[in-house]
Design goal:
It contains one helix and five strands, in the order βββββα. It is mainly beta. It has a domain of about 50 residues: SH3 type barrels. The protein has a five-stranded antiparallel sheet with strand order 4-3-2-1-5, with no helix packed on it. β1 and β2 form a beta hairpin. It is elongated and about 60 Å long. The relative contact order is 0.16.
């Protein structure tokens, strides 16, 4: 395993590119670019490159389609009745 390899963390199926490898406390730790976290190397396996896709924040698709003014947002805020979404009763 070396920097640039595509690997999968088997417990969660997280796929990422190896960006750093270090040894600590008798274990080998591998840092993945997707999560920016270190994983124990024993739990990583080689992954197919087709499983890896780096998505930046700017590339993520927005769920809001359209435009709204501040006035529109205030009107929508007043129209929402959250009492139907909240559990009733005291506590």
């Amino acid at each position: 395993m070396e920097a640039g390899d595509i690997v999968k963390y088997t417990p969660t199926s997280t796929v990422g590119k190896v960006v750093d490898i270090k040894s600590m406390d008798g274990k080998v730790w591998v840092k993945l670019d997707k999560t920016n976290l270190y994983y124990v190397a024993d739990r990583l396996v080689a992954a197919d490159p087709s499983e890896y896709k780096l998505v930046s924040f700017k590339e993520k698709e927005s769920t809001f389609k359209g435009t709204a003014s501040v006035g529109d947002l205030r009107k929508m805020e007043k129209e929402v009745d959250i009492s139907e979404m909240m559990p009733s009763g005291g506590g």
